[in-house]
Amino acid sequence: MIAMPRYAALLDRANVHTPSGGRHIYCKHFDGARNTRSKIGAKIDMRGEGGYVVAPGSFTDGGSYIGFFPDDLPTVPMGLRAMLLHTPPPAPLRTFDRITPTGEVEELLSHLPGDRPYGDWVSVLMALHDRYNGSDEGLALADGWSATGAKYKPGEVAAKWHRFKGRDVSWATVPALSRQHGADLSAIARGHM
User: Fold this and answer.
1) Composition of the chain by helix, strand, coil, percent to 5
2) How many separate domains does the chain show?
3) Which end of the chain is less enclosed by CB atoms within 10 A, N or C?
4) Domain-located, residue 180
5) Which domain range does residue 160 map to?
6) In three state form, how does the secondary structure of 172-184 look?
7) What pLDDT was estimated at residue 17?
8) What pTM value is reported for the model?
9) Is 64 found in the same domain as 18?
10) Is the pLDDT at 93 greater than 60, yes or no?
């Protein structure tokens, strides 16, 4: 209620202190009351139909719930009720419909030395495998990039390529590593649109 001072008067009514330092404030049920989590404010939850709370006098490993219930529980104030009933539209699903074009992939790879430490080298190969779904095109690109390093061994990339399973490492690894080596990801992407 510190975060919502206009409803602080509820603290004088059905008020229970929890072992973790929180508070439970009990009010009369209203139609449409449902469970929420941080919907009306940080760390402010509501329990409605199908929800439960631990009643005062209960003991847990963390301590006891201390408080009281008046004979007549307060009603939920109208402003608070309106916030609890309002359901915002669902957030749009995030889609990754842009497939990084091969020219952009090549430019990103140009920022990464082929002689990377072994773990990073394998991560780049796995990221390319993810971007190209394990295709021969991706293998050729991975092998060509790896061949820029002095430690390159013919056939080594292909041997590893065919053992990668699904999404061991995501494509996002290559842009992230390229950024660490000075790549301007926005400028590179704009150059390939």
Assistant:
1) 35, 10, 55
2) 2
3) C
4) yes
5) 102-190
6) CHHHHHHHHCCCC
7) 84
8) 0.51
9) yes
10) no
